[in-house]
Amino acid sequence: MTTNVDITATYSPEDNKLRLYASQRLDAETYQRVREAGFKWAPKQELFVAPKWTCAREDLALELAGEIEPEQTTLAERAAMKAERLDSIGERRAQEASAYARAADRLSECFYMGQPILVGHHSERKARKTQERMHSAMDKATAAHRSVGYWQYRAAGVEHHANRKNSPTVRRNRIKTLLADFRSYQRAINDAHKQLALWEKITTPALITIALNSLPDIPFGLWSKVDNGEVTLEHARELCIANAEKIVTSETRARWILHTLHRLSYEREMLGAVSRYSGEIKATTLQIFLREQGADKPKATATGIGFKVSCDAPLPLHVGEGCEMELTESGWRDLMLDCGHVPAQKAPAKNPILNFVAPSGRVAVKNPYRHELEELPQVSLTKAEYAKIPTDSRGTRPSACGTFRVRIAPYPKHDGPRYSAGWAAIHISDQKNHPLPESMTMEAAE
Questions:
Q1: Among residues 105, 107, 5, 16, which one has the least CA distance to residue 53?
Q2: Any long-range contacts for 309-318 (C-beta under 8 Å, 24+ apart)?
């Protein structure tokens, strides 16, 4: 290990990266260990950075630094510094382009007013050399000028990426990804718990044989050893039980779960406070919530005091203990708030599609693209005629009053090409008519 070197380790929850700051150059052995762990040297920042957190990288950082501190610079600050470096490179390229252009102009003075190269004259060699230098300077000026735009594009991309990472939409998607990762870790533990319960019931040689050929997560190659006589059925059962217990008690998996929960907590805090659910609590509401949190096939039933939930495997530790849990409705709301879960709200029902004959022969609708009102001529079609119109050429528009919708399609009586036909409100002639809407009745009265 490196001696007389002060190493500081930091972690940034914004980008899930570990960083190592060394006061001086690392020795060859430590440098090799840092590189093998996945840390890369960032020369401009003068630090080692790992692309993402892992247990092994955290252990190495703790070994070298003793503790891991919060990263002091934010993602936006690092992006601003990098953008500044890229902008400075662009400025240098612009200066180089100007210098090469001036050099080309000076050299071109030798050919002022179209002075030709005198073939055979003693000045021919020097003139051709000057011409080559002029063309080279012009090429370098062009290349440097083109690179200015490239470095400016890089600088703008760095800042855009930092802003995108902090976007609420991107953060919500990141929370969904973290929840999916957490469920994958928890699923392995749930399956191991169920296998342990199953192996307790499997004791006869016949059942052990069936289990070795049908159950998942059996140690690789175990059945071949049993078939060859290298391992007895009872010993194979003990190996399967030991493998399941290893998964349940895995310290590495527990660290990954804890790290993912901490990242979820950070992302939810940065996204904003979650409001406490005040809607109706149903069994399906709790089952959706617990499945999202990694519970194994939760079944919720109403009880005298609230709801009781039972699972085939123990509940995730951040939710509860054991395979069953009973809480009041208020208790479930508090638990959902602690886990940052907001039940999905039912989408509002769309306004009905009305079929009626407009007295004026025109129907006022809202244009959803230009956000303005427009009047469409009404045309009567049969169901069969309306069905012949391609589905991507017909649809609905909200009425001007916003209380109902109207069928629309390209004006059927248009003689020219379809793309030049305007829209028309469609009335289905062989379908039951609805009562005239109130807004249309008032319009007719006026």
A1: 16
A2: 312/190, 312/194, 313/189, 313/190, 313/191, 313/193, 313/194, 314/190, 314/193, 315/290, 316/186, 318/261, 318/293
Report the residue count for the chain.
446
Three-state DSSP class for residue 87: helix
Question: Taking Cα atoms as reference points, which of 227, 239, 338, 354 lies closest to residue 293?
Answer: 338
| Contact in structure between 17 and 50 (CB atoms under 8 Å) | yes
What string of H, E and C letters represents the secondary structure of 273-287? CCCCCCCCCCHHHHH
Q: Could you tell me if 45 and 51 are in contact, meaning their C-beta atoms sit under 8 angstroms apart?
A: no
* Residue 443: pLDDT over 80: no
Calculate ∠ Cα 236-252-340, nearest 5°: 120
Q: Which DSSP category does 315 fall into?
A: P
**Burial call 299-327: b when 16+ CB within 10 Å, e when fewer:** ebeeeeebbbbbbebbbbebbbeebebbb
Amino acid found at 177:
T
Q: Which residue has the tokens 């662009």?
A: 90
* Spatial CB neighbours of 220, under 8 Å, sequence gap ≥ 6: none
Provide the pLDDT for residue 146.
Answer: 83
Domain boundaries along the sequence of the chain: 7-72, 77-165, 170-253, 276-338, 362-445
Q: How far apart are the first and last CA of the chain?
A: 92
Per-residue pLDDT tens for 416-436?
887 788 899 999 999 999 988
| pTM for the full predicted model | 0.72
Beta strand extents in 170-246 (DSSP E only): none
Mean pLDDT of 100-112: 79
* 181 token code pair: 């990762």
Is pLDDT of 303 > 60? yes
Q: Is 406 helix (H, G, I), strand (E, B) or coil?
A: strand
